[in-house]
Amino acid sequence: MKEVLEFLKENGNGFLATMEEGKPRVRPFQFMLEAEGRFYFCTSNAKDVYQQLQAHSFVEFSSVSPQFAWVRLRGEIHFSRDVAMKAAILEANSLVKSIYKTPDNPVFEIFYLEHGKAILADFSGNPQREVEF
Which side of the chain, N or C, has fewer Cβ within a 10 Å radius? Predict the structure, then answer.
């Protein structure tokens, strides 16, 4: 878990895969933070991705380093209304803060992956590593 978190802290920009009308949909996304074994992300409830997440709660997030190592997180997401966690995300990310301003913004939604699988891999020829979280 520590290796996954360190990778995501250094390479937080990635892609989130959801389902839309029975087909995969991938878009740029950003890992926010980890707390109590949960990997947090955020979005607006006015976006299509929010509707997709409501309809199909299983996702995969992937991020790659400049050296072409990568991590994939997969599992079921859960939405949270935790105002303290929303505030922590706003404080940790100036771009998100510039968009949503306050944790009580009615369009600001946070969600997390918990009890999933992380896969770490690269082009070294070594086998990929899997981590349950």
Answer: N
